[in-house]
Amino acid sequence: MEERVLSMICVSCPVGCDLRVRVQGKKVLDVEGHSCPRGIDFAEAEVANPTRVFATTVRVSGGKLPVCPVRSRQAVPKERLFDISKEVARLVVPAPVDIGQVILPDVCGTGVDIVATRDLKAKEESA
Amino acid sequence: MADMQVDVAIIGAGPAGVAAGIGAREAGAEDVLVLERDWDLGGILQQCIHPGFGLHAFKEELTGPEYMHRWIERAHKAGVAFLTNSMVFKMESDGSLWVMNPEKGVFHVTAKATVLAMGCRERPLGAINVPGSRPSGIFTAGTAQRFVNMEGYMPGHRTVILGSGDIGLIMARRLVWEGARVEGVFELMPWAGGLRRNIAQCLNDYGIPFYLSQTVIQVHGRDRLEGVTVAGVDEKRRPVAGTERYIACDCLLLAVGLIPENELSRMAGVDIHAATGGPVLNEFYQTSRPSIFAAGNVVIVYDLADWVSQEGVAAGRNAALYAAGILEKPVRRIEVRGGRNVRLFSPQNIVGSGDVTVYFRVLRPIEKRCRIFAEPGLFERRQRYVRPGEMNEIHLKGAALQALPETVTTITLDAEEV
Amino acid sequence: MTDKTFDIVIVGAGIVGATLARELSAYSLRVAVIDKASDIPSGASRANSAMIHAGYDDQPGTIKADFCPIGNRLYHELAAPLDFTLKECGSYVCGFDDDDRIHLEKLLEQGRANRVPGLEIISGETLRRREPYASGDITHALRAPTGAVINNFEAVLAFIDNAQQNGVELFLETELKDLLLSADGAEVVGVATNRGRLFAPVVVNAAGVYSDLVARMAGDDSFFIRPTRGEYYIMDKRIGSLVNSFFFACPTPKGKGITVAPTAENNLLIGPTSIVQPGRDDTSTTADGLAEVIDGARRLIPSIPLNMAITAFSGLRANPDTKDFIVNVLERPLGFVNAAGIKSPGFTSAPAIACHLVELMKDRLAKRISFIPDPTFIPERKHTPRFEMLSLEEKRRLAEADPRYAQIVCRCEMVTEGQIVEAITRGARTVAAVKIWTRAGAGRCQGGFCGPRVVDILARELGVSCEEITRHGGHSRYLVGKTKDYWFRGEN
Hints:
The structure holds three protein chains of three kinds. Helices cover 16% and strands 36% of the residues of chain A. Chain A is of the alpha+beta class. Chain A folds into two domains: 3-48, Single Sheet (N-terminal domain of TfIIb), CATH 2.20.25; 55-116, CPE0013-like fold (Roll), CATH 3.10.530.10. Chain A starts with a strand and ends in an 11-residue tail after the last strand. The longest helix of chain B has 19 residues, at 305-323. Chain B contains eight helices and 28 strands. Chain B has helices at residues 15-26, 64-78, 141-151, 166-177, 196-203, 263-267, 305-323, 398-403; strands spanning 4-11, 32-35, 51-53, 62-63, 81-83, 87-91, 97-101, 105-116, 120-122, 138-140, 153-154, 158-162, 181-187, 210-212, 214-220, 227-232, 245-248, 251-254, 258-260, 292-294, 334-338, 342-346, 349-350, 356-362, 370-375, 379-383, 392-396, 410-417. The radius of gyration of chain B is 22 Å and the shape is globular. By secondary structure, chain B is an alpha/beta fold. Chain B has three domains: 1-121 and 258-327, FAD/NAD(P)-binding domain; 124-256, FAD/NAD(P)-binding domain; 330-418, no CATH class. Chain C is α/β, with parallel strands linked by helices. Chain C contains 14 helices and 25 strands. In chain C, helix 1 (15-24) crosses helix 9 (346-364). Chains in contact: A-B, A-C, B-C. At the B-C interface, strand 6, strand 7, helix 3, strand 11 and strand 15 of B face helix 8, strand 20, helix 10, helix 13 and strand 25 of C. Strand 11 of chain B pairs antiparallel with strand 25 (481-482) of chain C.
């Protein structure tokens, strides 16, 4: 299989290293430009199966706010992000919501849970 | 309500203020009160629901609300008192505060030391001089972020983003994730304003075009925004004739810079630095009014909340020491200056005997081997690059500072190619 | 709206319509004011220099020269009872050479003929002792102590509000479609609007930049309006103290009329340009115009920093080809009254025009309407509290009486929820109207902080969804939908 060199920016941390990744098919042969081992992990994942942590909001009924922020507990396949977004958009969660509460287990069959990222009290309670 | 007396009063319960509360309690202050104008704690990080916080503070990547949740828990455990829905509307030069709260009315808070932690605000359209009409559909990126993430409303169907500050980049992805279109991000400067990883994971991932050295030169639409005219700019950032093009859009988000919010600081007569827009500080986070301290984006706009929290803890600690009368007395005064490639830095004065970290931002990027340094001969570090979007740290040893001859009253920071 | 009957319909709720409505409300008359905008003032009364001119600028013998000094006096008298902000700052016309000196002498003469009090010409040195940031190139200046600045939003609201308290009905988003005439065309019988008909024997044309088109409906083609754009910057309050007075420059061949002034709230206002344009509702700003404003302003006050601009805007002046105000009662159709072409010093002159028009109507239209003084007329009103301006003790009292006055919504201008709710109760329906009433969103962050909160309060108080709230009426909705519905829009 032909060798190719891919350019990418590592998103593992705020440094954002410029990576040059030599690949053959989905196999990473060599990574340059990283400043820590996470750069290699990132490059390998990016070539084989890119994933991202997804964060959005979910509708809440009777809450102090109409929506509550949520995230995928782990990274999910990048190609599924829009499916997940639509799936979460269908939900309505009753208040109160606790941080870490599972809002949607195994979202879109990814094996990853969608969890709340804040406490959200019911409307009449005081903050 | 009855007036209050505390050891340390802190204005703002965002990352800086909550951390300052913890720092103050840990340094022994008895009564530590944080005043927050919102109904909930957390400041702007409440609406920063994306991951990207906490790698330094907690060694894991958290969303803004999760990051603040941990700090707020710590603050509660440390015995920090909070008052929400409490707006400080006036600050006296002694650091005492006039506050109002719907349940408690108007009251006065006197403190032995006060910490400014009001954060920053976004530059609006008027501040950047874009001509045209004034229809609806123009928001600062942070305002749109609040609408989307806290109120549950969409600001537009087709969005153009002016400026490549991080909030703008984050909002580009956020709108795409909610099913809307982003027509492009336009940056006046020849380099990005935000972090590179946000260019990658917020724009490149979704094929959102990113244009450098281009800007919006006209806004169109009487009622609702109908489109913008963009154009390339020359080295002096003036639009280049013939490069204009029209982009249909119903939403324009502005991510064109953040300004420290210092109305109260000014009221109290605190000296404000012309370049940072924040209080002039010494390394104890102490302003020109000795009982008033400051930390976080009210001082200088940081690129990571983790730094803001770290600075908050330190400022709170020093405020507590001052309140107890045991903050180190000034030994000498050394003025910090920025060199040719320095845009902003803090602190501006060094007065004590200990180690000091000075933060600074460069004016222009250097995308090759370079060094950041402090003269005369106090610090040097080699780096692979420096970028305006990322804060640099200069570490100065107390001993080295003390060893400087009396005739040396300034030190100079800079970054240059090697 | 079903058809209604009035004695007088005023077309246009700018300062001319507002002052006239208030003047008429002292009589037992049924008065309607219609305006096509969603919030008032719109048009030239919204976007102008907010200057109450002293009155030396106009040639003796013109209508302007008569009205301007009287209007000036009336604003000073009415500021307290009608509770609008007027700042006695005085004005300077600045000269840069001997030719300008001659011009200043002429203005001085005119002013004296127009009975403007207190005028004097001072040297550049004297000026700079009083105004340290004034340009060193200024050689002489004409001082007019009675020049003042006003909060023009508040003034229009004050007159309309007081008129409404005294029974005048205001119809917003109500656009004149046609003038209703008797079968023979000799008399006015009312107006047709987008929201139905209003019958009245007297119709007043106070339609500003549209006033020539309204006059055409009555067959009056004696004048036409050349909409004249004026662009401005508003600068941060932090540099509001660069000037203490209103600064004009003597006109030059290159440019004229760029002024530098404090506003009633201590911002700095610079502008306007003066560009005749075809469009009657295009209030865009332009790069060239804004550059001209900066250049012109720096000629007077060289140290004005551009980075202190908080917003730019433009207004369209109703500039008549006749050069003078058109204030008359037509013979045919009888009942049609013009208060048209009221360009600068129109805002200043408006209260005087209103008094004059009432006398004119009494004289000429007595057969159509009777002017019987209304014994229940209340000549005063209160604006919503201006929280920022109150003393600590007043703030405390207000906050304790109503907790909504202890909830700050706009941090830049220190506007409380209580003020916003009161503005909505008194008629504000849009984000722009809330700003006009309270200044929420008028500060240095331009609504970045308070925008979402104002939208929330409007929706709550009006009992509608946030999506229905507009910036300034029409199609200017603030938001385009709810996030979670957004993926499924178009689906049932």
